Inverse folding.
DNA sequence: TTGTCATGTGACAATCTTGTCATTTTCTTG
DNA sequence: CAAGAAAATGACAAGATTGTCACATGACAA
């Protein structure tokens, strides 16, 4: 949590600092990011920084929170929109919306990917928290089991992990290389393979 | 390539340095690993180090090469052993052998995983080279297509990537958390899902 | 105008890092 | 044994990093 002194700042200055943080954390992993760079970009003094934030973790958390807010505004309502859609329809839709969001907020998106790459204690805690969010997905799979769409013996948690892993890997490659041409096609391809692997045999 | 002065060293000293490098690179990513730590562990002076190697990349490459040799001695013959086995049988066998190798050489194994996590230019080049090795796997899939075991429209390259990604993710988790109880079971579970997704419908 | 108080500042200490180089030590060979 | 070659050494330069702290500044109220 930023200190009270930070809250007191003008919106303009707060934004300047936030943007500087995004700039840094979207180019270097948390453990490699430098406060020096942030204060240089934000044009504040070293002393000020420590008057606003306790340390690097503090500003990172602040930034992540802000970004999450922004993402929540755009996404997170896919599930409610089509209550009748099956798991894979919803999942693909979510992917596409995520893609759209990442295209309009490339920096925020890069922050997220770099977070995935980090291996500091601190970041691992955050990742664990994020993983909680995946539970709702496995609930969807369970529902489709009851509907008779998915084999009952399938480990839904495992499937969610698989999809998440493959998804992340795909985004990561895109992020690193910049080529994303048939990314969506590849994504759907992968999802279809898994769907085929867990779908209940038609009979 | 290490300098000639390094080659001239006694086997004992070479091993001492190699072991020190393994110790460091199995605990920190390439970009974070410190030469200081290596020379301290190996008990050589700073000057000596630079008389043996050009820089950090140099010793890393040397170490990776040695590790690869050691792994090649143990693995890499799975495919030839059962020329009649189908792709998934071979793949699972490979995984199991790899697991065994990693258990008898945990440090080498950690080096490999940390390499996967790094994002420096240098390491990316190495990763690209390693990826070449995956081609032989997609050949196996192609063969199984011809055998009528796998749907002809499947993108074999994509399947290999999926398996590789999932595999890595599994190993990584194990690496981080230390719990590996039902790892093999989970692995087979995942592989079976993909197999089900690309297998030709029985008819 | 003056006193108070929140805020801004950058020099500083304390740690790191890599790569170099003049010097010393050890080895080898005539 | 003695001279010349090869190897080992660690101090050093030059560059980072984070967090602290004594002080400067400026706003606001009495």
């Amino acid at each position: 949590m930023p200190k009270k002194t930070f809250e007191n700042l003008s919106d303009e200055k707060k934004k300047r600092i936030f943007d500087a943080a995004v700039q840094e954390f979207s180019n270097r992993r948390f453990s490699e990011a430098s406060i020096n760079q942030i204060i240089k970009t934000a044009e504040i003094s070293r002393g000020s920084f420590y008057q606003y934030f306790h340390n690097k973790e503090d500003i990172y958390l602040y930034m992540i929170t802000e970004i999450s807010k922004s993402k929540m505004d755009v996404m997170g309502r896919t599930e409610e929109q089509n209550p009748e859609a099956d798991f894979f329809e919803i999942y693909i839709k979510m992917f596409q919306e995520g893609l759209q969001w990442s295209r309009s907020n490339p920096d925020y998106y890069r922050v997220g990917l770099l977070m995935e790459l980090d291996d500091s204690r601190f970041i691992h805690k955050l990742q664990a928290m994020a993983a909680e969010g995946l539970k709702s997905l496995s609930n969807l799979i369970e529902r489709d089991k009851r509907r008779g769409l998915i084999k009952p013996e399938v480990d839904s948690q495992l499937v969610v992990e698989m999809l998440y892993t493959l998804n992340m890997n795909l985004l990561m490659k895109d992020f690193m290389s910049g080529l994303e041409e048939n990314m969506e096609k590849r994504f759907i391809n992968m999802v279809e393979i898994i769907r085929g692997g867990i779908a209940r045999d038609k009979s």
Observations:
- Residues 34-36, 46-47, 49-50, 55-56 of chain B lie near DNA strand C (CB under 10 Å from a C1').
